[in-house]
Amino acid sequence: MEMAANALATVILRSKPEEGITGEQSDVDFRREQFGTNAIADKKLDSFLKLCWDAVQDFVLIMLIILGIIGIAVETTIGLEEGEKCGACWLEGAAILAAVLIVVLVTATIDYHKQFAFVRLTRSLHDTNTKVVIRNGHQVSVIDDDIVVGDILSVNAHNLASIPADCVVLGPPISGGLKMDESSLTGESVLIAKNPGDIILSGTTAVQGSSKMVVIAVGVNSVAGKIKAHVYDSTDHEGEGLDGDDESPLFIKLEKIAKQIGMAGTGAALLSLAVNCIKGFAFGDENPKDVLIEYIVVAITVLAVAVPEGLPLAVTLALAFSSNKMMKEQNLVKHLDACETMGCATTICTDKTGTLTANKMTARAVYTNGTDFSCTDPALSLGAFVKQSGDRPSQPTLDIISTLIAINTMDETTLELDATGKQTGATGNPTEVALLALACDLGDNYQNIRESTRGRSDKGELSEFLVEGKQIGFSSARKMMSWAVPRLEGGYRIYCKGASEVLVARCNHELNKNSSSGSKDDVAEIGDSRQDILGVGEVYARRGMRTLALAYRDLPDGVDFDAKSDSVLNADGTEALEVETDLTFVALVGIEDPLRPEVPGAIEKCYDAGIDVRLVTGDSPNTAVSIAYQAGVLKDFHFTGNSPEKIAINLKPNVLMEGKVFRRKVYRIDDDGNKEFDQNAFDKIWPHLRVLARSSPDDKLTLAHGLNEDNIHVFPDRQVVAMTGDGTNDAPALKRADIGFAMGIAGTQIAKDAADIILLDDNFASIVTAAKWGRNVYASIQKFLQFQLTVNISAVVTALVGSFAYAKSPLAAIQLLWVNLIMDALASLALASEPPTDDLLKRDPVNRSKSIIASRMWGNMLGQASYQIIVIMSLLFAGPDVFGFDPGHEVERNLKENSIHYTFIFNTFVWMQLFNEINSRSLEGKCNVFRGIERNPLFCGILFTTAVLQIIMVEFGGKAMHVHEEGLSGELWAYSIVFGVISIPMQWVINLLYSFSHRYYGVWRERRRVKSARRLSTRNIDP
Predict the structure, then answer these.
(1) For residue 150, which of 15, 99, 293, 469 is within the disulfide window of CB 3.0 to 4.6 Å?
(2) Is 726 an active-site residue?
């Protein structure tokens, strides 16, 4: 099978297992032309007409269509006097239908663009889906879509696990085996072992081991591609991409408000119809045949006024605007609802490497031959420092260190060196990159070592002996990785690297200072040196370094690599492999990953915002504590009273836990002998827990599960958990958390698929940015609701009073459509464009169950609505006498013309809304509502545009907008604008009244509490 696989690659696909395809563009293009591309054609988008049909299904729009049709029918038939010609009497009804058309077109256009937004999002995700292939003898990183048939794909379970195309495993086999999870295709969770010649199907995942494989089918010709193509052709993709927002807390709250407003609007419409019918039929002499339809039209108008038609559009605009802005700040939002959900976050569980730190691992210290070499000069590499040291180790010792590193690292981890040997780049695991850089600094070429070692080389004549090598890949259960290669003398030498406390405990020997080859004559019993090594490791850890131990063991011929030890256990309590015991200690390496400079400030902002930060890392306790203290996750009060050192042992109880201790405490054994989660035990731990060291991916899942259960509380709601992750095994935790953050650079494809937001820069500070934007989205919707509901309250009251008094609303239906649909849509975009401020991170997280309309918002809405109603009522009843024009109801009834009176009311109403839009920039009742407005040109532009449109509507709208044919005089324009401007000082009055009433209410409650307490304390108690 191995020979057949290699022949397939070489003869049929014209590729070489060691060198891959040529990599020339002509070769790549030819393969795409012959075998297809690995990119699946985008799903078929809904047509614009279908989206228009979906948009017109809205209940309110259906009512407006009926209203427009009835209006045209009434005005052109029974609304005409005998002998009267219609002329342009149909205009108002037609204008209503035109307004509905505009709304349908706008909604359909937004949905149409949302489809393309999802396509762009998918392409952005594809750009982060990279794999390592061999082309022209070099390992290169390409996106999944660029893989072609014949490519030699390097796969490992660590960070290149997902399979993008159908492949065949190449030989020789690597010890340790490649095991695949094919559950995504078969539904079976049993891992499948793969050997050279076996087929690997696209869509599956490598969970153990590594291998090279040749690509044999891509795109729609692969198994996963066929399934995906079939799905695209046969389903409507519900729930995919940007769908699913209905489950968002924000949308739940908005749906509740919409229902309440709908009920209130229906009640107001029925009240209007009932009152008019009673007045017209019981107390008047109206002919039901002549006026009933008119009464119904008025009632429908009241209903149209009550329902905020622009709200869905406003929410979509706010979320889309914010998600686009977040993209520019390194947050790729996969689901729109994740924007505002992050505003509710109460706790963040974060990784260390690459998130809090820069993910630029560098070896800065090494302990070998009983000597500590710690380099403190940032301009000097560790290798150069060791070689310059007066008591430098022997050259054979340095050679063993370099050989161990070169052999026992993954093929996918490589350094890019220039002609002088200077490192210019790297790929693969950052920790292994640091080790390879150390080997190069010590004067050795890791690539030459690999290619010249039998059982490790996969190139040239030695490649046929690769099968003799035995790789035992890294696992979180063992916390180590090993690679055995044959020795010239016979037998094997197994090289090991891993967590210092794990490997040192398994070492029974150490290299002599003058070792020449590492043979038995060059080693000594480790004795008391074990404690010295562990002590040095603690010193490294206190300095924030990650410590890795390097060791080896010589094995005889015929050794059983699968044999288990009777006395040594792995980190998770399972039996250790016998070949990974009785080791010889070589060196302890301290690897430093510097803290990102912006992280401490970002974590401080989290604490100010009421968001707890918990560090979940695989590092040792002291290393984790050092980083956590530097970052600000741990504070001085987390340590015992007079702690001279900020180390793990000096922390208060439960502030730090190791993964194995954590698991032991939060899981219990039930009567059937099964492990089950103990929420009560978890609740005793999590309020104090800040650092989880030596953790496994399952610990993240446990944290996410325990923290967002409904039966634990810090705030009135359950915890809202944000979780970071980059590995395949992090995917369940990312899905279980309320908001999953995957790393855009270091994250695996599976982690990205499971996440809600992708951090393009892998930076913790970007998580804080997401929290700030999440709160800003929520605040933007609140601002718009405050603005919109103020409009609705005053408009409904105006429509009702007008219908009661004159059986006709002074605000025509088309005018209210202009206010509710067009102007409010612009207002929503203007208010959504308000950039987030740091003040948002000085508040507590948004309560999930709390009403979106706060008490202060009610004060602002009722205050402004009251002012507007007083102005409109004054103009309605006293306007003709004060300003000298004819009453609107008489003009429209007798002369069949649009009146100056009602046009003036409409214009004044709109200008009050425009200036109240400026007030709505603040929810807290600030006096200076113009503060920062110059930094938001979009808001200013929209405000100016709306004002210009209003001028056009009044002066040139005529019958279509139900305004006077000649518009308004300059005097009436001035009064309209003045009434609008007064809205701003009126907000100052509202602020003072609210503050006074709030303070008085607080004093009253306190006095009542004290009085009640005094009464209880002096009450006689019968014996």
Answers:
(1) 15
(2) no
- Residues 185, 188, 191, 194, CA torsion sign: negative
Q: Look at the block and give the residue holding tokens 């019958």.
A: 959
Nearest one of 741, 763, 730 to 158, comparing CA atoms:
730
As a dihedral over the C-alpha atoms of residue 721, residue 726, residue 727, residue 728, rounded to 10 degrees, the angle is 70
**Number of neighbours of residue 959 by Cβ within 10 angstroms:** 19
- In the numeric block, which tokens belong to residue 325? 């802005």
Its pTM surpasses 0.70: no
pLDDT digit string, tens, across residues 366-391: 999 899 999 888 778 899 999 988 88
Instruction: Find where tokens 């309250």 sit.
Output: 793
**Amino acid code (one letter) for 344:** C
In three state form, how does the secondary structure of 690-744 look? CEEECCCHHHHHHHHHHHCCCCCCCCCCCCCEEEEECCHHHHHHHHHCCEEEEEC
pLDDT in tens, 778-822: 888 888 888 888 888 888 888 888 878 877 778 876 787 777 666
Percent helix, strand, coil in the chain, to 5, is 50, 15, 30
Q: Residue 585 and residue 508: Cα distance in Å, rounded? A: 8
Task: Count CA atoms closer than 13 A to 408's CA, side-chain side.
Answer: 28
Annotated active-site residue in 146, 181, 351, 458: 351
Question: Which of 468-482, 643-657, 864-878 ranks highest by mean pLDDT?
Answer: 864-878
Q: What is the DSSP letter of 841?
A: G
Say which residue the tokens 């329902």 belong to: 307
Which residue's structure tokens are 């219908």?
A: 803
Q: For residue range 273-311, what is the model confidence (pLDDT) as tens digits?
A: 888 788 777 666 666 656 776 777 777 767 766 766 566
469 in Cβ contact with 449 (< 8 Å): no
CB atoms within 10 A of CB 79: 17
Contacts for 942 with CB less than 8 Å, ≥ 6 apart: 826, 827, 829, 830, 833
What band does 487 get if pLDDT is binned at 50, 70 and 90?
Answer: very high
Q: Provide the 3-class DSSP secondary structure of residue 373.
A: strand
Edge-first strand listing for the sheet containing 205-208: 192-194, 178-181, 205-208
Q: How far apart are CA 811 and CA 892, in angstroms?
A: 13
Q: Which two tokens stand for residue 84?
A: 């009267």
- Classify each residue of 995-1020 as buried b or exposed e, where b means 16 or more C-beta atoms within 10 Å of its C-beta: eeeeeeeeeeeeeeeeeeeeeeeeee
Task: With H, G, I as helix, E, B as strand and everything else as coil, classify residue 592.
Answer: strand
What pLDDT was estimated at residue 239? 37
- What does the alpha-carbon distance between residue 180 and residue 208 come to, in Å, rounded to a whole number? 7
